Amino acid sequence: MNLRKLLIVGSGLLISSNLLASGGTSSGGGNSINNSINPWFLENTTEVSYCLEIDESNMGVSRSRGISLIQDALQYWKSEFASSKNNNYRIGELEPYAQVRVATQVFNFEDCQDSTDLKFQFGILASDQVELLESVGEVVGIAMRTSYDVEQMRGSGFIYIAPQTGPLRPSSTYFGEQPWEACNNCTLEAVLKHELGHVFGLPHDQNDNRDIMNRNFPADVSSESFELEILQNGQFLLGFLRDIRKSYFNFENEPMFIGSLVDFEPKGLRSIFGLNSKESIIRMIEEPSRTHPSATDYIFEASDVFMQKWNRLGNLCWGISRGEGSRSVIQVYIDRGQQVFSKIPQEYYYGYLEGHSKVYKLEISGSLCSDRGTLEVPLLLRQEANGDRGLSTVVDGRIDLDWFQDEWQLR
Question: Helix, strand or coil for residue 320?
Answer without folding.
Answer: strand
